[in-house]
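Example 4.3 (complexes with small molecules)
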Amino acid sequence: MEIHVQSGRLTQIKGKICIIGYFEGDGAKGVIATLNRALGGKIRDTASAEGFKGKFLETLLLRSEGKIGFERLMLVGLGKKNALTEDRLRQSVGKGAAAVQKLGLPATSIYCDTKYLGKEAAERISQIMIEGLILSLYQFDQLKTKKTGQNKIKTCTLVIENTKNTTAVETGSQRGKIISEGVCFARDLCSLPSNIVTPTYLADQAANIAEADHMSVEILDRDTIQSLGMGAYYAVTQGSDEPPKFIVLNYQGAPQGKKKRPIALVGKSVTFDTGGISLKPSENMEQMKYDMSGGAIVLGVMKIIAQLKPPINLVAIMPATDNMPSGKAVHPGDVVTALSGKTIEIVNTDAEGRLCLADALTYATRFKPSAIIDLATLTGACVIALGQHAMGMMGNQARLISKVQVAGAAVGERTWELPLWEDYYKQIESDAADLRNVGGRPAGTITAGLFLKQFVDDIPWVHLDIAGTSWYNDGRHPYVPKGASGIGVRLLVQFLMNEASRNKR
Ligand code: BES
Ligand code: MN
Ligand code: ZN
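Answer. The structure with zinc ion bound is encoded below.
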């Protein structure tokens, strides 16, 4: 997407179409009133003829018949003024942009009202608008020989009426572009099937990202995984002919001389989950191509960080592998020794995510991070508990849990905390080893989280179960189309930028 910023009077700027927000019950005010006057009352008349009131996500398309510079206007309802939130704005722009794209137009303008805003607020709303635009227009069609035929919007111009905020709007919209394109990159990785997105493919993507300044990558192969003693992760990899890759991306953005402990991000990267010997039923098994969503999100974040370059240190860890049944596959009942030294009875080979993460988390602790955040499509139980509307969140430190919750809420990506009470621990005790990898049906998301907790020592840690939020089965959300959502990328970027600004102070 090419983004421009243009200042001038909204009635005079020329173009094919402009998306304009419309507050419910506020039609007679501000820029809408000016446009209505210039159009000889047409906005008021059409709105009342068609029952358009500016309710949240309502749209109204108007032709200007040469009375103003834009040929058409796409009015989008913002709902009641006092109910407007940043995410509602993002959703409204998404809705308007999708409606413009349906018209087959290759370019659009969006009116960005920054008249009464300071620099920071102007940056923020232009960022949000571009996010709504790019996130809603995303389509996964790279594997179709005939594209959908729809003309895609390739250019967007943010229109501002004053010049004082030009720089702020330019900065904000570029940031919005970087962030939402990072989300779309993560979506692509989740949507691409496992014959394309192999562990090697993920490693190649990580190596690409590592070309940026302050980034470096390390990729461990099967032999190294085994010789380092990552027995839990190795057990998952052993049934597959596809080579596993333990991917470590390092970003050193903190000012030189300041020894700053890194933040560690860990993403479950099971490129296909058949369940292994505890084979899944074939119905819907094809969906298990997105069992690497955690890794995709972490890679999306690193791609964004490589461009935003915040002054922090970061380490991203992705234990990538397929989970396959074969003559070499791990058997139910096998006992393995994790990198931490703990022994695990693998009662169910389909609970593979926590095995990969156990060793990835132990590996993360060796960087002495100030915080660890892991993301994983870990449990079907989380889909049952929360559906697609919130990530399941667990952790061992209230302060970090709260920071993650706040970052998510700020960008419209919700988390919901589940308790990691020790009462649940009995469920993952084993007769044969230190731990068993399944805790039975009750509280399946929590016992998985509690299992992970055994591998983070005392380092502040948050686990996000994204099984429900990673894939949208319907396309009714204004900026999350059907399919891979990329949810989690913007939460982490917001969290990291919050941490970076804390460092500066
Ligand atoms: N990848 C799955 C979890 C999953 C299910 C993600 C549905 C997305 C949608 C995970 O590896 C798994 O199989 N979990 C098992 C654990 C069980 C064996 C304790 C599950 O949830 O059934
Ligand atoms: Mn599984
Ligand atoms: Zn899985």
